[in-house]
Specification:
The protein is α/β, with parallel strands linked by helices. The chain has 10 helices and 10 strands. Strands 5-4-3-10-9-8-7-6 form an 8-stranded parallel sheet. It has a two-stranded antiparallel ribbon with strand order 1-2. The chain is globular and about 55 Å long. 42% of the residues are buried. The mean pLDDT is 92.
């Protein structure tokens, strides 16, 4: 059974709700702290960061291959986007302490082995593997070797790649895996959420499955819970008018509170949990 900070995650408990901070700090550690505090007050189980910097993700290059064309981030170079969106390493210790002090679980998504080592130094209780890193088996194996729960988003992947990622965890003796069905578009249209994949992935891999949801409402999340999702992850922002790289596919505090309340009601409506 998967547990994060002694909180079990399975079909016999309320769905585990993760608020994703990502770039929604808008370059301010004070906004980051206020966001974490609101996540706690609105009922989320955890707040999640991303641990990288621009230099660990790409190179500072203006050539076309390094420039985003179309979508929310049209015109950015990859370097400039990552520079704006990253949560500085220097903040992590303070944010981990702040979250612990107010009683909300905090963990992060590492994008390289250096980030894993850094998060280990902060005693992270879990690791999230982003969709774009699902084929980085060395990273997955290294994170899994720390013995913490591994949460893996499946966007962009095929079944063989998902199986390889799971086996990378098994290789180092880590079976504490929570898969997340994910549509890697930002935002994702609700009608394309394909939440039936939640039950399919559960049956195929015999693992707990959640939904990493980039839609603009909570419809897909609640539908996923009815199909057996045991965790929901949503990008979270204090105010959508505070524009930033992730603001257009994030939920605000009242929407997070509704997600928490409605997910519990949906879970209760499913009946006998034995």
């Amino acid at each position: 059974m998967i547990q994060i900070n002694k909180r079990p995650i399975h079909q016999n408990t309320f769905p585990y709700i993760i608020a994703e901070l990502s770039a929604n700090h808008n370059g301010s550690i004070d906004i980051a702290k206020k966001t974490i505090k609101q996540a706690k007050e609105r009922g989320a189980d955890a707040i999640k960061l991303q641990t990288y910097n621009a230099d660990s993700m790409t190179i500072d290059c203006n050539k076309n291959d390094f420039r985003i064309k179309g979508g929310l981030w049209d015109g950015y170079t990859l370097y400039d986007l990552y520079k704006e969106a990253c949560t500085p390493y220097e903040w992590h210790g303070e944010l981990f302490k702040f979250a612990k002090d107010i009683g909300i679980t905090i963990f992060s998504t590492p994008f390289d082995e250096k980030a894993v080592d850094f998060l280990e130094s902060l005693n992270t209780p879990a690791y999230k593997i982003a969709s774009f890193e699902l084929t980085d088996l060395d990273l997955i194996e290294y994170a899994a070797s720390k013995g913490k729960p591994i949460l893996i988003s499946t966007g962009l992947s095929n079944m063989s790649e998902i199986e390889d990622a799971i086996n990378a965890c098994f290789k180092v003796g880590n079976k504490n895996i929570l898969l997340f069905h994910c549509i890697s578009s930002y935002p994702a249209p609700t009608e394309e959420a394909n939440v039936k994949m939640v039950s399919f992935l559960r049956e195929k891999f015999n693992l707990e499955v959640g939904l990493s949801d980039h839609t603009l409402n909570n419809i897909a999340a609640i539908s996923a819970i009815s199909l057996g999702a045991t965790a929901i992850e949503k990008h979270f922002i204090l105010d959508k008018d505070n524009k930033g790289p992730d603001s257009d596919f994030s939920i605000n505090p009242s929407e997070l509170e509704s997600l928490v309340d409605d997910s519990k009601k949906c879970w209760k409506s499913l009946g006998d949990k034995n």
